[in-house]
Fold these 2 entries.
Entry 1:
Amino acid sequence: MYRTHTCGELRAENIGQQVTLSGWVQKTRELGGMTFVDLRDRYGLTQLVFDLSKNPELTELARDLGREYVIKVTGTVIERENKNKKLPTGEIEILASQLSVLNASETPPFTIEEESDGGDELRMKYRYLDLRRYPLQRNLELRHLMGIEVRNYLHQHKFFEIETPYLIKSTPEGARDFVVPSRMNPNQFYALPQSPQTFKQLLMVAGYDRYFQIVKCFRDEDLRADRQPEFTQIDCEMAFVERDDILDMFEGMTKHLFRKLKNIAFDYTFPRMPYDEAMEFYGSDKPDIRFDMKFNDLTSLVQGKGFVVFDQAEYIAGINATGCAAYSRKELDALTDFVKRPQIGAQGLVYVKYNEDGSFKSSVDKFFDETQLKTWAETMQAKPGDLLLILAGAKKQTQHALCELRLEMGERLGLRDKNTFAPLWVVDFPLLEWNDENQRFYAMHHPFTSPKPEDIALFDTDPGKIKANAYDLVINGVEIGGGSIRIHNRELQEQMFKVLGFTKEESEAQFGFLLNAFKFGAPPHGGVAFGFDRFVSLFAGLDSIRDVIAFPKNNSGRDVMIDSPSAIALEQLQELFLTLKKPE
Ligand code: ASP
């Protein structure tokens, strides 16, 4: 028998018992004639003690144990002299009488403790060692529990978990597909699903009116911050529902998860904010509403006073950083450098200090007098002691830059506490997005999203103005999920493909199966998908999804542990009828 207990289990009430434990050696220490060993497993740490005077041979053996050796030890639970209050097992230790080394270990390349001394790449290469660390174990436990609670909730609400295939034909969700060559069908390829979108819709046609799946999705995108080429969604679809039925159901699920996993009860309905409002007041379709600091559009108020930067700008807006009037030159310069970063993209920053004594000091004193600055302050609901930060330029870029500045100020002012959660639904997204480069419309969500019924007439006149019956769940500035009511009518779906620039033949070739299914009694339906990794990392208080995935890829999409992607053998290529070209 390897163990009678785990390394996290023994307490004062076990004193006097004979026990056997197995685990990894975290640390050994010598003290007088005693050797102490911290033994670790998934469940905790237990201190072992070897007494040189009582058992010299065994103690010699213990002294030779290296870090990460796997051992089995038998001994008696005794009361610990120096109790460790921080450790659940800290009241006791095991006086060892038998020790066997089950497996030796090389010295690990980094320390396997709460905080490791290993760099990112190194820990990724030895992921199985990094995974021995408690922070990662806690993350994977949380992930496991969230999976269970999602299933509990959806099962209670009569959802079926149904698997859909991984080897499919491409689903356009806006990214590139990963493709898989088919040996049995030479020169033909499967695509890995970017999501099970069309399948879940077909399940609605098939009459399974409540479906979900915790499922892998694959997107061959450039890996901007915190994306993974394969990630997991909680994918859901319902039939015979309107938008609010879906929002209610999944708001319920979100609250269930908060209650069960974070012990947080929301006693209110999540706000539902139209996309236009989110853009106007936060410059983002995923606003962080843990704090206010809304945008104030100043365009008409400040133009025409001879300040060219303003006069030439399409859009001028500012935020009120309350209580920041005392910011020093240095702090203001730092903010100016921040907004000028290429990723942020502003040309410069205008500030107005509304001093405690009621006077004003601004970076545009040459162009605007106190009376004018006072009107700005009134418009922005500023009080003495506040600091106005203003950006000007093209509308889209300025909204983006001001959004980043707002988040930065929120951070500086301590308004973005990781333990405060502020969920909302963003609704009424535009259906289409115009792409100047390719001179065509793209679906903002995906091509199966239904327009708002009252906007359908705009297909012929002004498609860019059509609003979609689409929604996102946003928590703390992070998009946690999104979905829509779908088109379930063949003609409307064809109209949508047409606006997206598909010819009849192309849409038939790519989506004939769906269009066909729509001939056979497709019910009204809609759904949503949540980023499972992101949900877990939000709950874990992490900034990255990487630490909630057991075996993630690095920023170049590589698994550095198994060294993938990698070349394949010539025979494999031949079997697949593939020849390779040198990249240029
Ligand atoms: N398939 C969509 C996505 O992955 C979600 C949905 O519309 O249900 O974003």
Entry 2:
Amino acid sequence: MSKLTDATHDPRLRSWVESANDGATDFPIQNLPYGRFRRAGSDEPWRIGVAIGDQVLDLRRAREQSPWGGDVLPLLEPLAAGDLNAFMALGAPAWGRVRAALSAALAEDSMQAPFLELCLLPQPACEMALPCRIGDYTDFYSGIHHATTIGKLFRPDNPLLPNYKWLPIGYHGRASSIGLSGAVRRPQGQTMAPGAPAPVFGPCAKLDYELEVGAFVGRANALGEPVSMDAAEEALFGLVLLNDWSARDLQAWEYQPLGPFLAKNFATSISPWIVTMAALAPFRRPFTRPEGDPQPLPYLDGDFNRRAGAIDMVLEAWLQTAAMRAAGQPALRLSRSNLTDAYWTWAQMLAHHASNGCNLQAGDLLGSGTLSGADEGGRGSLMELSANGRQPLALARGEQRSFLQDGDTLTLRAYCQQPGAVRIGLGDVSGTIVG
Ligand code: CA
């Protein structure tokens, strides 16, 4: 995949921001993710920044304080104005020029360092907001191991439905309840106990998380105009972590015949920094299908997708209960899986979404679906880890979990690493359940 990479991925590249050169940081100079922030506790306008080490480069100030090339200056305008959607709408060539300029500006020997030093803010001093306006949100179901494990709970002999290997399954989610890390209120809803004469209304008793990755659409397509696989690749702006909080007991009663509704739309959490597709170039992998599985139909197939459609990214879920926190005990890792566990690539999901002429817009969010691994250590939800509550998970000091309890903090993390490339990460997203 070497032709995907350029000077901005060079593993020898170091930054004058010293913390960016720490091998453990998620945000080395090879990453350069975008987020929206302001000084914590202030009522300043939100602005766009780039995470670099443990700092944020304020692009509004950077646009004013530092000299930039004439070709880059107009591209910085939407970023300086705090409008990431407008920047996303400019398309991949513009994203690439700004990435190259930011990389050069933050590199060790940059002449811009004395100017840009004045435009840094430590990350702990920043308050984050959603990175852009999310017009629409669609959640897919591309984690085949998750789909198989869940399917087995209900259809042991036939876990995957006949359409699964032919098209990316998805449903339209709700954009208004997407947020960042913080408290997640346990939803109330209607549930029907097995054998009960009537449903009851009350607090969800089977609150779960789903370990997912989200993709932001950059380039829009007009209504009625499908997107080719190559154009789909170019339309993708970047990735975040996504937790699709799920009320399993509400879901079981309400989902037939139209699919998820109130069991899903009470909260969805994403990580605040969008790691661009460009930053992920060193970690692209061929898209492959297991022997005997159908090859995708032509509109979901392409040379680039076969060569590099997949992304090698480690995904983890961590749990810290209130009792663990009180005892000073660190979070426990519940699972580790990989984005290559997805059965469909991002380009396939986007191309399929637009294949009927549906218009996607800059800032639309696509969820991957729960990404579980093939083995037991990779189960990306409590529904899988506890076999829908039949086998509670044993924690330290006699605690156990079938589903999330009030006070539980669930954190998702993701990173990419391989020999010959600098490790980059997505940061994390964390939610604490409140009653
Ligand atoms: Ca989901």
